[in-house]
């Protein structure tokens, strides 16, 4: 076997040993998959008051200073995990993840 072939074989073996077992990795999530978490999308609303909150009704639009093209922070249990953007899907407001942290 040439040195080049031996080096390639050794590199492949090292790479394979460095890769985690996919089934073991999936099982490691089993313990936490059922836990509850709070997911929030935060858009600042300067000047919004409790009075305004009490007057909210379905189909109302609330003005914000957030620019349409800017991503919004997505937090789980208060921790920033991603940036996202709003999108309408089948007539409902949705959030698409654009960048994971």
Q: What is the fourth-level CATH superfamily?
A: SpoA-like
Radius of gyration based on Cα positions: 23 Å
**Whole-number tally of structural domains:** 1
**Percent helix range:** 25-40%
| Cα end-to-end separation | 44 Å
Uncertain regions spanning at least 5 consecutive residues = none
Based on DSSP secondary structure assignment, what is the total number of beta strands?
Answer: 4
**Mean model confidence by pLDDT:** 83
CATH class call: Mainly Beta
CATH architecture: Roll
Main sheet characteristics: 4 strands, antiparallel
Proportion of beta-strand residues: 25-35%
- With strands numbered from the N-terminus, the spatial order across the biggest sheet is 1-2-3-4
SSE arrangement, N to C:
HHEHEEE
Number of helices: 3
**Given the helix and strand composition, which structural class is it?**
alpha+beta
Write a brief caption for the model:
With 101 residues, this protein is of the alpha+beta class.
């Amino acid at each position: 076997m040439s040195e080049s072939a031996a080096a390639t074989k050794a590199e492949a073996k090292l790479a394979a040993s460095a890769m985690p077992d996919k089934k073991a990795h999936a099982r490691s999530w089993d313990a936490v998959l059922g836990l509850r978490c709070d997911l929030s999308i935060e858009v600042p609303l300067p000047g919004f008051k409790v009075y305004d909150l009490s007057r909210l009704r379905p189909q109302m639009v609330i003005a914000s200073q957030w620019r349409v093209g800017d991503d919004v922070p997505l937090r789980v249990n208060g921790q920033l995990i991603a940036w996202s953007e709003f999108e309408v899907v089948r007539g409902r407001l949705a959030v698409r993840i654009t960048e994971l942290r």
